[in-house]
Design goal:
CATH superfamily of the largest domain: Tetratricopeptide repeat domain
Shape: globular
Pfam family, one: E_motif
Keywords: Repeat, Transit peptide
CATH topology of the largest domain: Serine Threonine Protein Phosphatase 5, Tetratricopeptide repeat
GO cellular component, one term: cytoplasm
Bound molecules: zinc ion
Protein name: Pentatricopeptide repeat-containing protein
Mean pLDDT: 80
GO molecular function, one term: RNA binding
Number of strands: 10
Number of helices: 23
Number of domains: 4
Distance between the termini: 56 Å
């Protein structure tokens, strides 16, 4: 019976697997594990978590030979990784801790990966640090290196890589993680050094990362050299990278070379056509722009809709680009308007070059506003309390404009925003925090005016005279978030959460 469940799950027929499971007169933990991991495999993480809770909720129907083991916990952790919701992950982690299954290295590795995928690289690091050195395996290192890289902490990844114990030999995954970290963090020369020191044969992915890194740094000729000297034929991704960079740096001849290769390799993605079209448009080659558009129509170009998720109080809300169907669309639309006013005050200019259509500037700006991640962020802002971190998951890569907006929203609203896109995590933390509580601040500044607003958690200080020692305040502080308006003689600090000394 267990074999049958396994077979059904592996064919993607989870309903059949479930039916067999439900009809079994008695089950053991292996049966549960097969259905649990099968649910994860078939992309039904909710079902996996439901089963896990049923099993671990110590319901009376569960017999002693159904005691959860490390495979159970690992399957449940994988379900949390798929969902990307940290609350579920913490629930499974506490179960693992209580049942002492978390002492197993394989469980710890899974936890590191899960926390990273749920957006908390700090928790991933905490689990990693809790491992004893001799227990750590190559997988442990690969997982944490990948986590650091994905979260843009390339320098930390590099440091950790350099401190890897001698008896653990890096493999191609290790190198790829470190190279990606260098790439995202812009550590080009370090990345080149790592690439040249590789003790395994570089694969297409390693070359791809190297090319991407050089392209992002504007070192297009070096990137092109790498492409030309690669031992195997570069793939579409690599040419696509060069195409994108050629657009960014306005290198028309290189863009044409790359676009030709991309077309030869059979790209049918609208993004490639958009890139080439934009390059022509920025050089006023309208005839070529038309040509690209005709080719798009002839070739039935696939357009994948962008969508984003945001989790609010344990519920996932999905937003599709341009979608106005959300029950509270009116509020979201208002929020988008307010956001635009606030970020424009911080210098935001819409990046309309990301829009292909032949429409007016104003419509282009409007179209940008309706990108799914912006809808999710706006919804998040109005659905959570001030200071709550927003986590957004996006199916495609975040565009340049949404990246700029998220950064400014973080600054304007004093929020940490994490966007997980197809490639990596983007963490926006444009907030300023300082350590002393309100009374310390009053002592330090003679000319301080305190306005306490009606809400007990919001204090606003307006400092009318610049105090040279301001800089000493810009560190630490967990509960107080400050924003500074740097006019020469006026500083405004807004404490969003005042925590009385006694409770600290
Ligand atoms: Zn966007």
């Amino acid at each position: 019976m267990t074999t049958l469940i396994d077979a059904y799950a592996k064919c993607g027929r989870i309903d059949n697997a479930r039916n067999v499971f439900d009809e079994m007169p008695c089950r053991d933990i292996t049966t549960w594990n097969v259905l649990l991991s099968g649910s994860v495999l078939c992309g039904h993480p909710h079902l996996a978590l439901h089963l896990f809770r049923q099993l671990c909720g110590f319901s009376s129907s569960v017999s002693p030979n159904e005691t959860p083991d490390s495979s159970t916990v690992i399957a449940a952790i994988a379900a949390c990784s798929q969902l990307g919701t940290i609350a579920n992950g913490e629930e499974v982690h506490s179960f693992a801790r209580a049942s002492q299954l978390d002492s197993q290295i394989i469980v710890k590795n899974a936890l590191i990966d899960m926390y990273s995928k749920c957006g908390s690289v700090d928790m991933a690091m905490k689990v990693f640090r809790s491992m004893s050195k001799p227990d750590m395996t190559l997988i442990s290192y690969n997982t944490i290196l990948h986590a650091l890289s994905m979260h843009g902490r390339g320098a930390d990844a590099l440091k950790m890589f350099e401190k890897m114990p001698r008896h653990i030999e890096p493999d191609s995954i290790t190198y790829l993680a470190v190279l990606c970290g260098c790439n995202h963090a812009g550590l080009v020369d370090d990345g080149l050094r790592v690439f040249n020191s590789m003790r395994v044969t570089p694969s297409m992915k390693h070359y791809g990362t190297l090319v991407n890194m050089l392209c992002r740094a504007g070192r297009l000729n070096e990137a092109y050299d790498v492409i030309n000297t690669m031992p195997s034929e570069p793939d579409m991704v690599i040419w696509h990278t060069l195409l994108g960079a050629s657009q960014t740096y306005g290198d028309v001849p290189l863009a044409e070379v790359a676009a030709k290769k991309v077309a030869e390799l059979g790209s049918n993605m609208d993004g490639d056509y958009v890139l080439l079209s934009n390059i022509y448009a920025s050089n006023s080659r309208w005839h070529d722009v038309d040509h690209v558009r005709t080719r798009m129509q002839c070739n039935d170009v696939i357009k994948i809709p962008g969508f984003s998720y945001i989790e609010i109080n344990g519920t996932m809300h999905m937003f599709i680009k341009g979608d106005r169907s959300h029950p509270i669309w009116k509020e979201i639309s208002n929020a988008l308007h307010i956001i635009s006013v606030r970020i424009r005050a911080l210098g935001y200019v819409p990046e309309v070059q990301n829009v292909l259509h032949d429409i007016g500037e104003e419509e282009k700006q409007h179209e940008l506003y309706l990108h799914s991640e912006k809808l999710a962020i706006a919804f998040g802002l109005i659905s959570t309390d001030p200071g709550v971190e927003l986590r957004v998951i996006k199916n495609l890569r975040i565009c340049g404009d949404c990246h700029a907006v998220a950064k400014l929203v973080s600054k304007a609203y004093n929020r940490v925003i994490v966007v997980r896109d197809r490639a990596r995590f983007h963490r926006f933390e444009e907030i300023i925090t300082i350590s002393p509580n309100s009374s310390t601040l009053v002592k330090q500044f003679n000319h301080v005016t305190i306005r306490s607003y009606s809400s007990p958690n919001v204090y606003i200080f307006i400092i009318l005279k610049h105090v040279p020692s301001t800089s000493i305040l810009w560190s630490g502080g967990e509960h107080e978030s400050f924003r500074r308006y740097p006019s020469p003689n006026v500083y405004i600090f807004i404490i969003l959460k005042h925590v009385p000394r006694s409770s600290a």
